[in-house]
Amino acid sequence: MIPLLHDFAGETVLVFGGGPVGARKARRFAREARVVVVAPEFADADFGGAERVREAPAPDEVGGWLDRTDPALVVAATDDGALNARVESEARGRGVLVNRTDEHGGRDAGSVVVPATVRDGDVVVSISTGGASPALSKHLRERIESELADAGAMADLTGELRDRLQREGVAPEKRRAAVRSVVENDRVWKHLGEGASKAAQEADAVVDGVVGDDP
Ligand SMILES: C[C@@]1(CC(=O)O)c2cc3[nH]c(cc4nc(cc5[nH]c(cc(n2)[C@H]1CCC(=O)O)[C@@](C)(CC(=O)O)[C@@H]5CCC(=O)O)C(CC(=O)O)=C4CCC(=O)O)c(CCC(=O)O)c3CC(=O)O
Ligand SMILES: NC(=O)C1=CN([C@@H]2O[C@H](COP(=O)(O)OP(=O)(O)OC[C@H]3O[C@@H](n4cnc5c(N)ncnc54)[C@H](O)[C@@H]3O)[C@@H](O)[C@H]2O)C=CC1
Questions:
Q1: How far apart are CA 33 and CA 31, in angstroms?
Q2: Could you report the predicted ipTM of this complex, rounded to two decimals?
Q3: Nearest atom within ligand 1 for CA of residue 135
Q4: How far is the CA of 19 from the centre of ligand 2 (A)?
Q5: What's the pTM?
Q6: What is the span of the domain harbouring residue 19?
Q7: Domain tally for the chain?
Q8: How open is the CA angle 188-191-193, to the nearest 5 degrees?
């Protein structure tokens, strides 16, 4: 499996199952997508503002749910293996992405795995163990969380910097060297934690040292 980032803005994600797992997946996708969760009962959990529909579809009703909601991704998170299998086959028949939460191997085209994810602003790191050990993914996620502190602010700062250097017509080689010097600079990182403007000043000094007056 190869990790890719998928933009779910404007898309629908359909979740079957309202237990802790359905709730976790609903929260994950609700930050971008419209999420609909179908289940006969819902755990006392945060569903991220997802729409909840209290029903227990039989296997032959699953296709109708896909047709009515037209999802980009379906999550099979019930405790009924036969229902989850039907969710998978109906999704596959329609070319819709599917996440089976009750399996970890034997994947086919269109199968997606939800990785453990750390975010800081626009920076995102995701961890998967190829389905072998979700507990390890979670543990590693907790370990690297602190590593990402201020990475979002660094992405903002250097994003603006590379736009400015491009506008000013600085040669590509020098742009590359300047941006690399900023992301590797400990003083810039230190100031990011204290406020964006001091960090930007420090970054400007680093850039001047690399680019000089000569474009
Ligand atoms: C294949 C996958 C499919 C998918 O869901 O996409 C899958 C499948 C299964 N998980 C199971 C169990 C657990 N899952 C977790 C936790 C997480 N599981 C997540 C993803 C994935 N889980 C995908 C693979 C990811 C990878 O490649 O590593 C995370 C990372 C993302 C998320 O869900 O948000 C999230 C951590 C989020 C975070 O904290 O950052 C814990 C830990 C806990 O609960 O404390 C346990 C108990 C401990 C254990 O068993 O390891 C079982 C057995 C069920 C049973 O025995 O009945 C199956 C089914 C099977 O393995 O057959
Ligand atoms: N991928 C993952 O991260 C993990 C996956 N699992 C797997 O995910 C499954 C769900 O886990 P939990 O949420 O803890 O289980 P749970 O038993 O708490 O919840 C199951 C949910 O499915 C609903 N349901 C049952 N029949 C349904 C139907 N016909 N249509 C719609 N909803 C229906 C139930 O009402 C309930 O809301 C487990 O069976 C297990 O195999 C378990 C732990 C982690």
A1: 6
A2: 0.97
A3: 51
A4: 5
A5: 0.95
A6: 12-114
A7: 2
A8: 120
